[in-house]
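Notebook entry, structure prediction.
Reason for the run: the old model in the group folder had no record of what sequence produced it. Starting over properly, with the input documented here first.
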Amino acid sequence: MCLRIPSFFTLIESLANALFEKLDPVMKSIENKKLIDIAIWQRVKLLVEDTEAIRGRAEGSQQ
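New structure, fully documented this time:
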């Protein structure tokens, strides 16, 4: 099975967007209540940064 590159990046971008939408409320809740272990919080932040990077690369490749 061969995926065309634009289709692949569109898929990755949509997955990143969906993940980011799910993580955003969680992050805000965590920030407001400060009820989380620092190590877990750092992992969540890294995941969000990675998601934003993927989104940026997908947007850049489509231009």
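Summary: Residues 9 and 57 are 8 Å apart (CA to CA).
The old model has been moved to the deprecated folder.
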